[in-house]
Amino acid sequence: MKRHDVDVHLTHSLNGGDWLLTILNQTGMCLSAFREEIDFLVWESEFDNQNMSTDDVPNDVCDKLIKWCSIKVGTFGSVTAAPASIPVIGAIGTSVLSTTVDVAFLIRTQIELCYAISCVYDSSMSENKLKALSLALLGYDDNEDLAIDIAASSFKTFINELSSKYLRKGIEKTVAELAPKLAARLMSRAASRLIPLISIPINASLNVSAIRTTGKRARSYFSQCTY
Length: 227
Prior knowledge:
Layout: H1 3-15, H2 18-29, H3 31-48, H4 56-81, H5 92-120, H6 127-139, H7 146-152, H8 155-169, H9 171-185, H10 188-193, H11 199-222
Helix pairs in contact: 1-5, 1-9, 2-5, 3-4, 3-5, 4-5, 4-11, 5-6, 5-11, 6-8, 6-9, 8-9
C-alpha cells in the first residue's frame, strides 16, 4: 500500500466528526471530577511549597499536568507504533488502525488537559464554552489568517473570538468542520509508522510535542482570564 492509500484510509477513519464530539461530551461529563482532583493538586502544591508565591502555585500544578500527560501520550504512542516497527511483520493495515486509535487518544488527552488547566485557574465557565475553547486551542493552527489576526490582537482576544464563532455556529457543526482538518494535520503520523525501527521514537516525540504545545496555549489563555 502506497502513502496515498494510507492517507485515504486514515482520512476516511477520522474525517467524520462523531469521534471528536464523543470525546468532547465524555470529557464534559468528567468536569466535576477534574475540579476535585485539581483542588487537591493545588492544596498539595501549597502544602509542599509553603514559601511559593500564590502566582507560582498554578504554574507548578500546570507543569505537573503537562508532564503527566506527556508521559501518558508518549507511552501510548510508542505502544501503538510498535507493530509497524517490525519489518515484514508490521502490516500496513494494522499501522493505519493503530494510527487512528493513537490520534483519537492524543486529541482526547489534549482536550482533558485544556479542561484540567481551566480548573487550575478556577474557571467557572459553562461546559459549552469550555468545549468551544478547547476546539479553538486545538484548531488554532488551522486558521489561515492566524498571523494577521494575532498581530492585530492578543492571544486571549483571538481565542475568545474564535471560540465565540464556534458557539454561534454550534458545537456539532464546528466539530464536523474541524475533524477533517485535525486529521489532515496529523496525516504525517501515518507515514512515520511505516519506517521500520524508528517509528516508535518518532511517534512518541510527536505526541509529547503536541501535548506540550496544547498545555502552553491553555496556560497562556486561562492565566489571563478573570472569573
